[in-house]
Write a structure and sequence with these properties.
- The protein is of the alpha+beta class.
- The protein folds into three domains: about 110 residues, SH3 type barrels, CATH 2.30.30.40; about 70 residues, SH3 type barrels, CATH 2.30.30; about 120 residues, Alpha-Beta Complex (endopeptidase fold (from Nostoc punctiforme)), CATH 3.90.1720.
- About 20% of the residues lie in helices and about 30% in strands.
- The chain has a six-stranded antiparallel beta sheet with strand order 17-22-18-19-20-21. Strands 6-5-4-1-7 form a five-stranded antiparallel beta sheet, with no helix packed on it. The chain has a five-stranded antiparallel beta sheet with strand order 13-12-11-8-14, with no helix packed on it.
- Strand 19 and strand 20 form a beta hairpin.
- The N and C termini lie far apart (about 60 Å).
- The N terminus is likely disordered.
- It holds the Pfam family SH3_YKFC_2nd.
- Keywords: Hydrolase, Protease, Signal, Thiol protease.
- One of its GO terms (biological process) is proteolysis.
- Belongs to the peptidase C40 family.
Length: about 325
C-alpha cells in the first residue's frame, strides 16, 4: 500500500510540474519564460532590429549590440518601450491582441497600475507551471552577478527562482516551466523570504552598482544586459530587498528627503528640466567622495563621475534616502 501511495504521489508531482498553456485571458497570472522580456508601449511595433528581443529564447545581447546609436535613441525618442521583466517574474495579463498581451509586472511599483508596471509583450514569452506558482513566497535563490549561465539560458542579476535544495557548491532551483537547474553559490544567494535579505549599507549598494560599469545604456532596461537610469537604481535596491518605484519621477517623491550637504553613499540624486525646477527626468546614486554612479543615456554606459559634472549640477532637483544610515 505504501508503494502505491508513493507511486500516486510521484504522478501528481509530475503533473504539477508540467507547464499549462497560457490562454492569455484577462487577470490570468503567468511567468516570464525568457531571460528578460521587453515590454512595449503598443503591440507588434517592433522594428527589424528588435526581433531578437521578442524570440524564445530572447537574444538580448544580439539585440543591444546590433542597434546603431540612432536606433537606440529612437526607442526613447519615440516612446516605444515601457520596462523589462526578468526570468521568473510574475505578471498579470490585462489584455490580449493577437499574439501580444498587455501585462502588469508585479513588484515594479507605479501609479499607472496598482498591480504593477504595464506594457505589451509577446504571449509566447510567458509560461505557467502550477509547481512554480506553488513555490512563490517560499525560499528563493537570487542571482548576484551581472549575468549567469543557467543551463543554456543566460539570466540577469536580480533574477529570483524558487529554492529546491543545495550542495556545498551549488543551489538547485525551479525554472518557470516547472523544471530544475543548478546555479553556483559563487553566482547567487539563497533567502527564506524577502524580509530575510539583510538591509544593505550605502557602500554595499554602490559596490554592487560598480559591477555594471561600462554596461551600455538601454531605454527601459532592467537587467544585466542594459539599464536605463531608474531601472539601474530600482534594481540595485530591489536586489537588496528594498522596494522603490520604477520611474525616476516617482522615485523622487518617495523615500526621505536629504540635504545636499549631508549626502551618504546609496542616496539617490534627481535631475529635472528648467534648471532643476521642472519635471524630473534622470536619477543617479551618490557613490561617496563627491562622485555618483548612473546609467546616463544611449550615447554612454554605466559610469562613475563627479556630482558637479557640467550638465548635471545645473539640473539637480534634490536627493532621497531609502535606507537607514
Amino acid at each position: 500500500m505504501k508503494k502505491i501511495w508513493i507511486g500516486i504521489l510521484a504522478v501528481l508531482l509530475t503533473i504539477a510540474a508540467v507547464p499549462s498553456a497560457v490562454k492569455a485571458e484577462k487577470n490570468q497570472t503567468a511567468y516570464i519564460n525568457v531571460s528578460a522580456a521587453t515590454l512595449w508601449t503598443e503591440p507588434d511595433i517592433l522594428r527589424e532590429v528588435d526581433k531578437p528581443s521578442a524570440q524564445v529564447p530572447a537574444d538580448l545581447r544580439k539585440w543591444t549590440s546590433s542597434m546603431t546609436l540612432a536606433e537606440k535613441q529612437q526607442l526613447s525618442g519615440n516612446g516605444m518601450l515601457e520596462t523589462q521583466a526578468l526570468y521568473g517574474n510574475e505578471v498579470t495579463i490585462l489584455e490580449r491582441k493577437g499574439a501580444w498581451v498587455k501585462v502588469a509586472v508585479h513588484g515594479q511599483g507605479t501609479p499607472r497600475n496598482e498591480q504593477g508596471y504595464p506594457g505589451w509583450m509577446p504571449a509566447k514569452q510567458l509560461t505557467y507551471s502550477p509547481a512554480f506558482a506553488f513555490h512563490q513566497d517560499k525560499p528563493f535563490v537570487l542571482v548576484t552577478k551581472p549575468t549567469v549561465q543557467l543551463k543554456k539560458l543566460e539570466v540577469s542579476y536580480n533574477t529570483r527562482l524558487p529554492y529546491i535544495k543545495e550542495t556545498k557548491k551549488a543551489y538547485k532551483v525551479m525554472t518557470p516551466d516547472g523544471k530544475s537547474a543548478w546555479i553556483s553559490k559563487n553566482d547567487a544567494a539563497a533567502y527564506r523570504s524577502e524580509e530575510a535579505i539583510p538591509e544593505p549599507s550605502g557602500e554595499e549598494l554602490v559596490r554592487k552598482g560598480k559591477m555594471f560599469l561600462g554596461l551600455p545604456y538601454l531605454w527601459a532596461g532592467m537587467s544585466g544586459f542594459g539599464f536605463d537610469c531608474s531601472g539601474f537604481t530600482f534594481t540595485l535596491y530591489q536586489s537588496h530587498g528594498i522596494s522603490i518605484p520604477r520611474d525616476s519621477s516617482v522615485q523622487a517623491l518617495a523615500g526621505k528627503p536629504v540635504d545636499p550637504e549631508n549626502l551618504e553613499p546609496g542616496d539617490l540624486l534627481f535631475y529635472a528640466y528648467d534648471q532643476g525646477k521642472g519635471r524630473v527626468h534622470h536619477v543617479s546614486m551618490y557613490a561617496g567622495n563627491g562622485m555618483m554612479i548612473h546609467s546616463p543615456n544611449s550615447e554612454r554606459s554605466v559610469e562613475l563621475i563627479p556630482v558637479d559634472t557640467k550638465g548635471y549640477a545645473e539640473e539637480f532637483a534634490g536627493a532621497r534616502r531609502y535606507i537607514h544610515q
